[in-house]
Amino acid sequence: MKSVTLIAALAIALPVFAQDKPAAAPQEAPKPVAQQDAAKPKPMARKHGPKRGEDARQCLEKPTNTEIIKCAEEYL
To answer: Where are the chain's structural domains?
Structure first.
């Protein structure tokens, strides 16, 4: 039974490996370092709240999603 499975897997996989690979697309010249840094958005530094790591499940008792989010942000 294992040999039948192996033969079936090879029969399916071999045509995939036999296909011709497409030609590589021409690459653009690398950008100068100054442009690369300017193009990337910088991550915002976030100060941790005093409740970080505590349980925030009581926020789920709030009536609206907006209030839940505002309550839970204190725990991030």
So the answer is: 51-76
